Structures are given as C-alpha cells and as structure tokens.
C-alpha cells in the first residue's frame, strides 16, 4: 500500500524494528516464485491443525525444518511424512542483510544463521492470534518479510497477550525484525486489508509472510 508520504524505519520496541519497503518489487516477485515452488512440495502448503483441535486460518509451508505445534522435525509427520525442502543459502544471506539494515551491526549479522523459514499465506479472512515464537532453542532474531496485501500487525510484550501492544501496518516489501528484549514478545495479525497489495509483486491477492529463524537444533 502506498501513500502520499514515505514511511520511515521505526523502532517499535527495544530490539523490534520496522523497515518499510525494504524488498524491491523484483525481490518480492522472486520470493513469490520460490514460495510457490515450496508450496507444491515435497510437503504441500496446508492449514495447520492445533493440539486442541482447531485449525489455523492461514496456510503454511516450511523450509529447512517442518514446524507443527510445538516442535520442529525434518519430516512432515502430520502431513505426508516427506522431508521438507532444503533451506537455501541465498535465503540465509537475505536474512543477514536484513539484520544489517535493522540493527546496523554487520559483525552480529555475519553470525546470523537461520535454518528454517515458515511461509504463511493469508487470504482476506485469515488472521493470526497473539502468540510467541518460542519453539526454537536459539534466541537469535526473527526476520519477517511481507509481500502482497497490507496487514495490521499487532506487536506486544513478552509477558502477556494483552496490552501494551502497538499496531503496525505491514505493506508489501516491508521488513520487520524482532530480537533481544523483544525476541519473545507476543504478536499477531488481527486483520488483512484486501486489495492493497499493489502491482508487480507476482501476487493476485492475499498476503505472504516469510519468517526466518534459527532453530538451534543443529
């Protein structure tokens, strides 16, 4: 979504940084193509079933490690038992570039070694409840990339799902990084704004979110 005035990078909380428009349109389109390949398999994109019986409204495909609540495995035992697609070196390099932009610390960024990506596709009705990314053994930052329709991203605190939190609009091409004191902050997506994706990114509609993480699993 574009506006009359440029959106500036902002620190949302200590260790949590929003960088609007970080991905070029060409980079967005290349990522969309890669995500389409991953969604075709070996483990297809699916709605994740939660332990209490509910089903997530987003559709998810994983790279490097397969995530299911609340663990990572090399094979998708809850889908088809197949090994997940390998995590590509170019995606890890993209994550390191993101950390340099967000934190300005090239030395720390060189040590960042993400080994899994969760790719979530939101249609116009999909949401994500407030949750923590805490199934990893590593406390390294999470790098989040948004493509397609703008969403309302609710970024909270590490103690509870309630206030204080900040609502941020994440548009196509935006980068959001959270680490340090905010690594285990609750966050979610209460709303997607259909029709706001803009041209050229390779998506006809909906929102694509790619999060890079270090599992610490070796």
Describe the structure.
This is Alpha-ketoglutarate-dependent dioxygenase AlkB. Keywords: Dioxygenase, Iron, Metal-binding, Oxidoreductase. This protein is an alpha+beta fold. Helix content is 16%, strand content 34%. The protein has a single domain (10-213), classed as Alpha-ketoglutarate-dependent dioxygenase AlkB-like (Jelly Rolls, Sandwich). It has helices at residues 25-39, 89-103, 106-110, and strands at residues 10-13, 16-19, 46-49, 55-63, 66-68, 71-73, 116-122, 128-131, 142-148, 150-155, 166-170, 175-178, 187-193, 207-213. It has an 8-stranded antiparallel sheet with strand order 1-2-12-9-14-7-4-3, with helices on one face. A 4-stranded antiparallel sheet has the order 8-13-10-11, with no helix packed on it. The N and C termini lie far apart (39 Å). The model has no long low-confidence stretch (mean pLDDT 94).
Short description:
The protein has 218 residues and is an alpha+beta fold. Helices cover 16% and strands 34% of the residues.
List the helices and strands and how they pair.
Blueprint: E1 10-13, E2 16-19, H1 25-39, E3 46-49, E4 55-63, E5 66-68, E6 71-73, H2 89-103, H3 106-110, E7 116-122, E8 128-131, E9 142-148, E10 150-155, E11 166-170, E12 175-178, E13 187-193, E14 207-213
Antiparallel strand pairs: 1-2, 2-12, 3-4, 4-7, 5-6, 7-14, 8-13, 9-12, 9-14, 10-11, 10-13
């Amino acid at each position: 979504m574009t506006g009359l005035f440029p959106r500036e990078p902002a620190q949302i909380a200590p260790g949590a940084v929003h960088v609007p428009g970080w991905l070029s349109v060409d980079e967005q389109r290349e990522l969309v193509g890669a995500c389409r390949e991953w969604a075709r398999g070996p483990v297809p994109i699916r709605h994740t079933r939660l332990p209490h019986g509910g089903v997530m409204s987003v559709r998810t495909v994983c790279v490097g490690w397969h995530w299911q609540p609340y663990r990572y495995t090399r094979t998708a035992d809850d889908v088809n038992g197949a090994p997940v697609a390998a995590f590509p070196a170019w995606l890890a390099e993209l994550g390191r570039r993101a950390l340099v932009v967000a934190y300005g610390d090239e030395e720390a960024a060189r040590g960042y070694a993400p080994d899994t990506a969760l790719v979530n596709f939101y249609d116009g009705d999909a949401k994500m409840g407030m949750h923590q990314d805490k199934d990893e053994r590593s406390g390294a930052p999470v790098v989040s990339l948004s493509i397609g329709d703008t969403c309302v991203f609710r970024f909270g605190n590490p103690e509870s799902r309630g206030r204080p939190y900040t609502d941020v609009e994440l548009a196509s091409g935006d980068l959001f990084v959270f680490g340090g004191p905010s690594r285990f902050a609750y966050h979610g997506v209460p709303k997607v704004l259909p029709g706001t994706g803009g041209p050229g990114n390779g998506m006809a509609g909906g929102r694509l979110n790619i999060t890079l993480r270090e599992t610490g699993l070796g």
